[in-house]
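Q: what sequence does this backbone want?
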């Protein structure tokens, strides 16, 4: 599966700072100091509907992580999956009377278009669950054969008790885990499971649903968590720098994925930092496909909204915070974009050297985008007041905003 085209990232004078970021597993900030190549895995979409602001906010956060790393002169190895077969996708296809493969391809293509418009840097490996199945089956077999998984009426379940570190990503109580498991695709009340929290690794073929050859597992399709584990281990290995996604993936997805990988390899941890973006609400409720309270990137683009303004709207909130999308948020971003573009269109202006360092410091401090935006606002205000004669400043500001914030002026 191919990703989307990469926008050029301008090189800036000097060198960026190492990223200090909040790690869900420890509950505090960690300083990430990768080697020459930083490794990041971000969980992708289940393509049964278009990209909404919640998606955009998540991928914007991890695009910033990449940009901070690139500014430190590192390379970035970024991997993202597409869950192109799963219950929600199949249910939507049945509801709409369309082929599930065509639905997945259509919505994945639209996602690519939205990511391109928003100048999100693409992954080096963009892998669909279906194409990953040949690598998933042997992992499930290994877990089963080692006693870390078991069969229940043809389905294969992972035993969470097989991982001594289970629970150390979310640090949630068992009661909360069970509640979230039921809410987010698990089946804690299924009779016969060794532990109500045990997640499915391989679902035996169901009548009327797609299935694939599972070798000794029998025909079926993979569970959600093992999909990402197989892709991450194949392309990044254990101990990669950041496992990323929305905060709704902390449990069960990232918790279970970590346990799968740690049990398979005997190594701990799967990732050096577990980083999660906050949820975006509309009309007081989390924006989600199930609720239908969505603002789509593609719809805004069709309505003529500049993608740079959409990105500025996302950047106006700290990535870890939950926040609400409103017309005012977008209007403020449109006005800010206009001020910035007017400021960099002049032939000279106040020196921008200090601004570049302010941006670097803000972003290295747990991706503090509101502080970064405020710094550019101050420079633009000085420019409007006629506060300088440095003919290199407007160009440097434009390159810095592009390189570090992903906003083209």
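A:
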């Amino acid at each position: 599966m191919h990703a989307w085209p990469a926008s050029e990232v301008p090189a800036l004078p000097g060198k960026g700072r190492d990223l200090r970021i909040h790690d869900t597993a420890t509950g505090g900030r960690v300083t990430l100091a990768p080697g020459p190549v930083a490794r990041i895995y971000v969980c992708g979409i289940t393509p049964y509907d278009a990209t909404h602001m919640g998606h955009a906010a998540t991928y914007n956060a991890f695009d910033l992580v990449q940009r901070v790393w690139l500014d430190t002169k590192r390379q970035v190895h970024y991997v993202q999956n597409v869950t192109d077969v799963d219950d929600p996708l199949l249910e939507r296809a049945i509801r709409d009377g369309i082929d599930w493969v065509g639905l997945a391809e259509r919505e994945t293509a639209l996602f690519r278009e939205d990511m391109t418009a928003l100048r999100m840097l693409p992954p080096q490996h963009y892998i669909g669950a279906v194409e990953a199945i040949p690598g998933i089956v042997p992992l499930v077999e290994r877990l089963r054969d080692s006693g870390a998984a078991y069969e229940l009426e043809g389905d294969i379940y992972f035993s969470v008790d097989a991982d001594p570190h289970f629970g150390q990503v979310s640090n949630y109580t068992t009661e909360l885990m069970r509640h979230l498991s039921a809410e987010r695709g698990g089946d804690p009340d299924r009779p016969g499971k060794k532990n109500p929290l045990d997640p499915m690794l391989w679902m035996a073929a169901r009548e009327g649903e797609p299935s694939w050859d599972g070798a000794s597992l029998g025909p079926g399709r993979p569970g959600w968590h093992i999909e990402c584990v197989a892709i991450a281990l194949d392309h990044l290995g254990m101990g990669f720098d950041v496992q990323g996604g929305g905060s709704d993936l902390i449990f069960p997805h990232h918790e279970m994925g970590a346990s799968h990988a740690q049990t398979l390899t005997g190594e701990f941890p799967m990732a050096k930092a577990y980083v999660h973006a906050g949820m975006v609400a509309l009309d007081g409720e989390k924006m989600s496909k199930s609720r239908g309270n969505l603002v789509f990137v593609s719809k805004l683009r069709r309505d003529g909204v500049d993608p740079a303004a959409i990105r500025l709207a996302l950047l106006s909130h700290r990535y870890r915070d939950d926040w609400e999308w409103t017309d005012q948020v977008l209007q403020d971003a449109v006005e800010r974009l206009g001020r910035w573009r007017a400021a960099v269109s002049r032939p000279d202006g106040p020196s921008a050297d200090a601004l570049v360092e302010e941006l670097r410091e803000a972003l290295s401090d747990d991706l503090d985008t509101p502080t970064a935006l405020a710094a550019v606002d101050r420079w633009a205000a000085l420019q409007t007041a006629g506060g300088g004669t440095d003919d290199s400043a407007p160009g440097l500001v434009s390159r810095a905003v592009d390189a570090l914030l992903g906003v083209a002026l």
